[in-house]
Design goal:
Low-confidence stretches: none
Helix content: 25-40%
Number of domains: 2
Pfam family, one: RAWUL
Main location: nucleus
Structural class: alpha+beta
Largest sheet: 5 strands, mixed
Strand order of the largest sheet: 5-4-8-6-7
Protein name: Polycomb group RING finger protein 3
Mean pLDDT: 88
GO molecular function: zinc ion binding
Distance between the termini: 65 Å
InterPro entries: PcG_RING_finger, RAWUL, Znf_RING, Znf_RING/FYVE/PHD, Znf_RING_CS
Oligomer: single chain
CATH topology of the largest domain: Ubiquitin-like (UB roll)
Length: about 220
């Protein structure tokens, strides 16, 4: 059975002792772990070097260096108090707007958005580089049947993560004039039929490890076994 707790019973834990409002930009004194609104604490420390709650000396000359934003506490406050975060953001925007000043949080948000966009663009670029950054394998594709055309260029260089299916599609496009006909092609190595999901790295390591490159593969019309 869930037990409901009234918000006012938690107020002493989530309010600022200086302004008596809910914590905004919760900032904690490292020495004693008492927490206040950032603006309230900074203003207090302009003329004092002690904690407003326990009066412990934070630092003789640079108390601002010994306080820290408490993200966990602020997240708790925003979760407990309905609409507090939205209302505070609106008040802050109105404050800067009335004074024709840029809102620092909007600037930070725009900066974060730019960074996220740069990251997305970088990921897209990496995805569109056709695996050029992968380990590469030199392959020689030879026709082992008189019923298929020979490739004009037998030697290719491709990603070690390419699969036999990729090679079958390549061969089908070149010799059968249609990539969709790749199921009509078999690929072999040392006269052994290769599985469609084998990567070239797997084939190289298991069938060609002690031989000189390039990896020599053969293609032929599919034979139903």
């Amino acid at each position: 059975m869930e037990r409901k707790i009234k918000l006012k019973s938690l107020n002493s834990y989530i309010t600022c002792l200086i302004c008596h409002g809910y914590l905004i930009d919760a900032t904690t004194v490292i020495e004693c772990l008492h927490t206040f609104c950032k603006s309230c604490l900074v203003k207090h420390l302009e003329e004092n070097n002690t904690c407003p709650t326990c009066l412990i000396i934070i630092h003789q000359s640079h108390p601002l260096n010994y306080i820290s934003f408490d993200r966990t506490m602020q997240d708790i406050v925003y979760k407990l108090v309905p609409n507090l975060q939205e209302d505070e953001l609106n008040r802050e925007r109105d404050f800067y707007k009335e004074r024709n000043l840029p809102n620092p949080k909007d600037i930070q948000q725009a900066h974060d958005n730019d960074e996220n966009m740069d990251k997305i663009n970088e990921e897209k670029h990496q995805e569109s580089d056709y695996h050029r950054q992968d380990e590469q394998v030199n392959v020689c594709l030879e026709c082992s049947s008189n019923n298929l055309k020979h490739l004009k260029r037998r030697f290719i260089r491709c990603s070690s993560q390419a699969t036999i299916t990729h090679l079958k599609k390549f061969v089908a496009k070149k010799v059968l004039n249609g990539m969709e006909k790749y199921r009509d092609i078999d690929i072999l190595c040392n006269d052994e039929l290769l599985g469609k999901d084998h990567t070239l790295k797997f084939v190289y390591v298991t069938r060609w490890r002690f031989k000189e490159p390039p990896l020599r593969l053969q293609y032929r019309p599919r034979i139903d076994l």
